[in-house]
Specification:
Mean pLDDT: 89
Low-confidence stretches: 1-16
Largest sheet: 5 strands, parallel
Strand content: 5-15%
Shape: globular
Helix content: 25-40%
Order of helices and strands: EHEHEHEHEHHHHH
Structural class: alpha/beta
Number of strands: 5
C-alpha cells in the first residue's frame, strides 16, 4: 500500500488514470474549475439538508445539464439536525463525505485551496482521511485537492486563462446565508472570498450587499490580518481587492 502519512500537493495529471476518481461537487467557485482541471470526472453532490441547500442543488443541476457533467445527487446523508440555524457549518462534514465517496471511487477530489486550514479541510486533514480510509478499505484511497498550491484568486485566473465561459463561472454559488431569493448575501465569509477572487480577476459578481462593507471586515478581518492571524496570501489578495474599490 502506498504511503499516505504525509500528503503533498498533487497535480491531477500525475494520478494513476486506472484508479476510479470522483469529484465532491459543491456548486462553488472552486469546484466548477476543478471539474475542468481534473478532466471532467464524475461528480457527486451530497444533499445533507443544510441551510441554503436548494440553491446549491439548483446550481449543480443547471451546471451539469449545461455542460454535460456526469452528476449524482445523493440524499443518503441527512445532517439537517446539525445545522438548524442560518449559516451553521456542519463540523467534519468533509470526513463524512469522503467516507461515503470511498464506496464509489479510490481517488476522491474534495476541493480546498491554499490557505485552507479548518479541521477537515487542509492537506494534513486529507492525508489523515486517506490513511484511515485506506486502512479500512484494504486498498489505497486518496483524498486530495488539485488546488493546494493555488488561492481562490489563482483558481479563477487559471479558469479564465483556459478560455472557459465566464458566464458559467458566475453561475456558481458560494454563500453560507442566502436570502429568500437565493442571492449571494454579501454578509458571510463565503461571499467575501468569492468577491475577492472575482474582482481581482476583473469580474463583477452579484451580491445583495457589497461584501467589502460588511461590519466583520473592519471588526475581524482587518485586525486579524494586521496581527498575523490570517493566511498571508489571503491578506494580500484582500488588500488588493479593497484597493480596487477604493476602500
Amino acid at each position: 500500500m502506498e504511503s499516505l502519512t504525509r500528503q503533498s500537493p498533487v497535480r491531477p495529471d500525475t494520478v494513476n488514470s486506472g484508479r476510479k476518481q470522483i469529484l465532491l461537487f459543491s456548486a462553488g467557485l472552486d469546484s466548477f474549475p476543478a471539474w475542468h482541471r481534473l478532466g471532467k470526472p464524475p461528480a457527486l453532490y451530497f444533499d445533507s439538508g443544510h441551510y441554503g441547500r436548494q440553491q446549491e442543488i439548483d446550481t449543480v443541476r443547471t451546471l451539469a445539464f449545461t455542460h454535460g457533467m456526469q452528476l449524482e445527487i445523493s440524499s443518503e446523508l441527512d445532517l439537517s439536525a446539525r445545522a438548524t440555524r442560518k449559516g451553521d457549518l456542519i463540523p467534519f462534514r468533509n470526513v463524512l463525505f469522503a467516507m461515503l465517496a470511498s464506496y464509489r471511487a479510490e481517488v476522491i477530489w474534495c476541493i480546498g485551496v491554499k490557505g485552507d486550514h479548518t479541521d477537515d479541510k487542509s492537506p494534513e486533514a486529507f492525508a489523515r482521511m486517506s490513511t484511515m480510509l485506506s486502512e479500512f478499505a484494504g486498498h489505497p484511497i486518496r483524498v486530495d485537492s488539485p488546488f493546494w498550491d493555488m488561492t481562490k484568486t489563482d483558481v479563477v485566473a487559471w479558469y479564465l486563462a483556459q478560455g472557459l465561459p465566464v458566464q458559467a463561472l458566475l453561475q456558481t454559488f458560494s454563500c453560507a446565508t442566502p436570502g429568500d431569493r437565493f442571492e449571494h448575501c454579501g454578509r458571510c465569509p463565503s461571499c467575501l472570498r468569492r468577491w475577492i477572487a472575482l474582482i481581482n480577476n476583473g469580474l463583477t459578481g452579484s451580491f445583495a450587499r457589497d461584501p467589502w462593507t460588511w461590519d466583520r471586515v473592519s471588526d475581524y478581518y482587518v485586525p486579524a490580518m494586521a496581527d498575523g492571524r490570517y493566511p498571508p496570501e489571503r491578506a494580500a489578495e484582500f488588500h488588493r481587492a479593497m484597493a480596487l474599490v477604493g476602500a
